[in-house]
Amino acid sequence: MRKESIENNGQKIDYYRLFYVEAIMQDSAFPQINKVKPIFEHLSLEEFLELVERVFNDDNYETTTQFLYFLLLFRDMPNIQNFINSKEFGIKNLEKLIIFIFGFCSRYDMPPARIIDEVLYFLSNDRLIDLVLESEYIHRDKLLLFFILTKFDTVHLNHFFAAVRNVEEFTKYFINLPDDVLRMLISRNYLLFQYIMLMMSEGHVEHDKYIEFMNRYKNEMDQFSKLHDIIRKYKRDTKYEKDRNLPFNMRDMGRISFLVNMVKDLPDPERAINYFNSESVFMDDFEKKIVYAIVTDPLLKNILKDYDRMLDTPFLSAGDANERIPTS
Q1: Are 164 and 170 a contacting pair, CB within 8 Å?
Q2: pTM of the predicted structure, to 2 decimals
Q3: CA-CA distance, 163 to 262, in Å (whole number)?
Q4: Each residue of 210-243: pLDDT tens digit?
């Protein structure tokens, strides 16, 4: 299928009819993906929005379900990501997609954190803030709300908490979450936890419950306080911003060595890495995965242990470092 807005007969392509024929009117219960995929690849934003409107207005369960399934299936397409992140793809439409994805993935026992991180990874923070502020569905599902909040940086958390009206209800729901869920939320975004602790300290939770809560999670607070100090040292002692637009093999290996050596001996390296990620310490997801692999694999754990001693200065470029490290 060629990318063109007009067919040979001069008529505009009816993408709804094309989708219906390829995805719904097939004898097989499983539409041929290689025939449906080009439809989504070649859509413009205007054509996509028109297709969305016709599918949802048709109010046909099978058509809607198949359409949402293909949005899930083709979520890696850059154009589909851009369309879904566009404000023109309204909140109600985004709600339908979120509800479908959580329902579909839950059938395969995928927990909320994985769904948000691995399936809905492409949603921008600007889109997510619109969702948590405007979606009635998200407001009702407080657990999903908290997991989405763990994706936010300082700017978006400020935006969200400035809009919270019933602070007391919000904090009470948080402290009554199951212990394992609470610890997971704390580990995913300590800054979010600090916001909620601040609201609790201002009297939005009974004093006795506040003290009990503080005592129960004292170890978590101590650990994240140390991680915060590590991040301050990292940002003070490294020129990390210079690496942001460089490919991995041209980045400062001393900076990455610093991260590895700070994290690898902590009681919970995975938690530390998640916290670092929420603080934008890593340049990209690939760098995060590299550090994670080094600190969690026993065979790799000491690979950068003596890195600084092998160099004349603690933070040389990757190219300089490679010249100083002998190869077999």
Answers
A1: yes
A2: 0.72
A3: 37
A4: 888 888 888 888 887 788 788 888 888 777 888 8
